Amino acid sequence: MGINTLDLHRPAPILIFGGSYDPVHQAHVEIARFFIHTFEAQELRIIPAGQPWQKSKLVANAEQRCAMLKLAFAEIKETRIVIDLQEITRAEQNIASYSVETLRSLRAELGQEIPLILLIGADQFENLASWRNWQQLFELAHIVVAARPNYSDQAQHLDEELAQKWQQTSSNPSEMKRYSFGKTWMAKDLAWDISATKIREHLLRQDQTLAYASLIPPKVLDYIQSQGLYQAKI
Question: Is the CB of residue 84 less than 8 Å from the CB of residue 45?
């Protein structure tokens, strides 16, 4: 691992945005856009999961989820969008994927100087101490939490070691852009609290009111319908 020294002329950050994306929805797009502008990112690296070890079987297959991602993020023109298939490739080879391994792979590809910013949700943050070698994440990237409205990072059930580590590394976007890794920040009161699980439930019930209420990008919704995804099996 390279030395994480202050550099006022460090390259622009790359955002790392992983998830199941089953399906991708408008909150994913808006959250990504918010952080692209906040960090003046040179790239958004989207990493769809293969078979997440903490989740049950996915509904859409890898090809379908990637197709939906391309449709959803085509509207973002502010930076380069890359859909990284490394975790899907590992799953096809029956190899488990862990965030720490994914970040190591990205460091090997991108070098030590570029700030890497791992975007996670509040639920993922609360479970971070259950991730494999989670302490090493701080040696590979910055970690930013996208928190829903009224979320408190003083959760009583937060792992004690994680809470201490988070407090020690707390920072802000301006400072994070000047280091390669090791800083943290929680963006609070983001107004995009959409659950992919609830979207699937509404699609299963063919709830047109919710489906057409801009919770799913229109082209993604068209694709879902053309593929017959998230529908009751007859």
Answer: yes
Name which of 100-104, 172-176, 216-220 the model is least confident about. 216-220
Q: What is the pLDDT of residues 26-64, one digit of tens each?
A: 889 999 999 999 999 999 999 999 976 655 688 999 999
- Mean pLDDT calculated for residue range 170-182: 96
Domain ranges, ordered by start, for the chain: 14-193
Q: What percent of the chain has pLDDT over 90?
A: 65
Here the tokens at position 90 are 């590992």
Across the range 159-184, mean pLDDT stands at 96
How wide is the angle at C-alpha 75 spanned by C-alphas 77 and 179, nearest 5°?
45
Which CATH code fits 14-193?
3.40.50.620
